[in-house]
């Protein structure tokens, strides 16, 4: 009676067929995993784009209301119309750019071109209202700049146009935002459905693999083990017979092994008796030791080295009875006065007469030792160079700190000090009898006090913020951008692309914060930028901080020509590079005249100090 299908011996063709199906199953599972990851990544990228688009679309509503509000402010008497006109122009520009970006895309804002027919249809409906509001606002600006007096009839008409179109614009903009949100939800539902299909497919492959591959293999392995155990019993019986033959031949085999070792591995070899006299020495060994045939009558220890201390040591080693091989590296002195290194193996030879002879096997390792010494010297020199470099960097950091202190002292002296002096003189000059002059001076003193408070807050903010020590780099940078935005009135934004709250070494956090602070201050002071974005990203143990601005930019070729102390208000480019170099980071500066500047800070670390989820 034949065996069942799964109990048959596993021939080569069956094994190859099973292996083929097994590899195909694994490949299918791997393919499903890859497809799932691709779908997830594509969806995540789409979600990121949709969130940015929804943010910009929502901001359009606020800008439309801001536009109408600023136009209405022009009608009020006593308002600062010049400032309102400036803000109104900025609002129109930003509103127009964002409206165009939502339809046709904008690389700098990270928005792709819109292709959804329904959304494009809504934009087609909203565009006439948007255009009407833009035209009316521009005409209001033109009338105001031309007349400079109370609002004319044309101005009233344009303002009414703004009010008439604002309500429709807001309603349609709400519909567009809802369309963006519905599209995002639909994409998420499709992704979930595809994920379920891929999961079912993977589980089905695993089930079939267990049923048709693993189960037959397990039965076959069980039968194979049974046959192996039976063969083991037969093998043990044969081993006992072979062991007797092996013991008889072991002695002769050992002698042959020792002889083969000498022939195959020894270029420098010699043999000696128990008393140290030479039995044989190779010609190559004689040439290396600079000895002739007449010297062979001397003990082997005297041939190996001319140093008396080493001779005594080798004599004791050669006379000692040992059963194991002794190996060591020894420095010997030849008869020519040369110092060489030998890797020496002393092998005892057991003779049938119970007398022990010694076999010496050597290798010339002089060159290796010399190279090793050179490597050690280079390592030592490299270590000393690194220590010197660290000292130089430390001195440069101290110099940068001194420059920063001088800058703070200059700010306090030139700004706060002068305002305090002016405050003192004005207080002393107040004459209570002259009430008109007194009221005027008190109003001036109020303005001066406000400026003084602002100057003090600006100067103290440039010092190390408490957020850096208490909460870490990310909250400190966020606080810096928000405070500078309040103090300067510029659009200074912070974008955190990380999903976790991460702490680094305190030295690294301090230096990275200072370099980022200097980059933002340079964009404010020298680039004349109105829009500054500081973004943070942490992937693969690399922290990347990017500061982008829309300032006037500069020619990058001047960076290599700047002196070390080229900075009117801080540590300057040189100290920025030194700080980043001090923590083994990298600094990149890219700028195009008229198009802005990008400063990139990269810092790689083996592992962050803290790594916990962000708390909203």
From TrEMBL:
Domain named PAC: residues: 326-377
Membrane protein topology class: Multi-pass membrane protein
Superkingdom to which the source organism belongs: Bacteria
Locations listed in the record: Membrane
Gene3D superfamilies hit by this protein: 1.20.5.1930, Histidine kinase-like ATPase, C-terminal domain, PAS domain
Transmembrane segments: 21-40, 196-214
Keywords: ATP-binding, Kinase, Membrane, Nucleotide-binding, Phosphoprotein, Transferase, Transmembrane, Transmembrane helix, Two-component regulatory system
A UniProt-annotated Pfam family: HisKA_3
EC number: 2.7.13.3
Protein name (database record): histidine kinase
Species in which this protein is naturally found: Cellulophaga baltica
């Amino acid at each position: 009676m034949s065996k069942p299908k799964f109990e048959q011996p596993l021939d080569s063709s069956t094994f190859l067929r099973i292996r083929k199906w097994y590899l195909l199953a694994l490949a299918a599972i791997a393919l499903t995993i890859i497809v799932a990851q691709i779908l997830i990544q594509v969806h995540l990228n789409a979600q990121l784009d949709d969130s940015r688009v929804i943010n910009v679309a929502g901001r359009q509503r606020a800008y439309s209301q801001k536009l109408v509000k600023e136009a209405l402010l022009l009608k009020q008497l006593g308002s600062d119309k010049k400032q309102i006109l400036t803000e109104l122009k900025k609002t129109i520009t930003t509103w127009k750019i964002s409206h165009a970006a939502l339809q046709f895309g904008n690389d700098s804002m990270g928005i792709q071109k819109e292709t959804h027919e329904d959304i494009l249809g809504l934009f087609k409906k909203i565009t006439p209202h948007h255009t009407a509001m833009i035209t009316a606002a521009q005409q209001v600006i033109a009338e105001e700049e031309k007349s400079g007096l109370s609002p004319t009839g044309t101005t009233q008409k344009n303002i009414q146009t703004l009010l008439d179109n604002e309500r429709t614009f807001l309603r349609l903009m709400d519909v567009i935002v809802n369309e963006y949100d519905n599209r995002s939800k639909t994409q998420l539902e499709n992704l979930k459905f595809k994920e379920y299909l891929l999961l079912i497919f993977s589980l089905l492959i695993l089930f079939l693999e267990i049923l048709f591959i693993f189960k037959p293999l397990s039965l076959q392995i069980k039968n194979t083990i049974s046959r192996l155990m039976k063969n083991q019993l037969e093998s043990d019986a044969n081993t006992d017979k072979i062991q007797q033959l092996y013991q008889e031949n072991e002695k002769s085999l050992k002698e042959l092994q020792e002889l083969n070792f000498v022939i195959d591995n020894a270029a420098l070899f010699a043999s000696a008796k128990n008393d140290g006299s030479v039995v044989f020495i190779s010609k190559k060994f004689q040439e290396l030791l600079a000895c002739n045939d007449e010297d062979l009558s001397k003990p082997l220890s005297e041939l190996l080295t001319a140093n008396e201390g080493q001779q005594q040591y080798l004599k004791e080693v050669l006379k000692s009875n040992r059963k194991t091989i002794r190996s060591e590296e020894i420095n010997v002195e030849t008869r020519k006065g040369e110092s060489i290194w030998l890797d020496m193996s002393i092998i005892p030879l057991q003779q049938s007469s119970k007398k022990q002879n010694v076999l010496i096997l050597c290798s010339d390792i002089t060159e290796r030792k010399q190279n090793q010494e050179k490597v050690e010297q280079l390592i030592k020199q490299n270590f000393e160079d690194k220590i010197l470099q660290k000292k130089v960097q430390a001195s440069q950091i101290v110099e940068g700190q001194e420059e920063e202190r001088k800058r703070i002292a200059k700010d306090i002296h030139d700004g706060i000090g002068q305002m305090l002096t002016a405050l003192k003189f004005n207080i002393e000059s107040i004459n209570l009898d002259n009430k008109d002059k007194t009221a005027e001076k008190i109003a001036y003193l109020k303005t001066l006090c406000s400026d003084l408070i602002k100057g003090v807050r600006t100067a103290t903010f440039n010092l190390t913020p408490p957020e850096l020590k208490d909460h870490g780099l990310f909250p400190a940078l966020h606080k810096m951008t928000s405070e500078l935005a309040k103090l300067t009135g510029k659009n200074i934004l912070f974008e955190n692309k990380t999903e976790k709250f991460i702490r680094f070494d305190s030295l690294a956090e301090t230096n990275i914060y200072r370099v980022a602070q200097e980059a933002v201050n340079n964009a404010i002071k020298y680039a004349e930028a109105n829009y500054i974005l500081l973004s943070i990203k942490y992937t693969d143990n690399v922290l990347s901080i990017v500061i982008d601005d829309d300032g006037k930019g500069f020619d990058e070729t001047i960076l290599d020509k700047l002196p070390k102390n080229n900075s009117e208000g801080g540590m300057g480019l040189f100290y920025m590079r030194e700080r980043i170099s001090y923590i083994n980071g990298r600094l990149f500066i890219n700028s195009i005249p008229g198009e802005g500047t990008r400063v990139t800070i990269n810092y790689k670390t083996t592992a962050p100090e803290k790594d916990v989820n962000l708390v909203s």
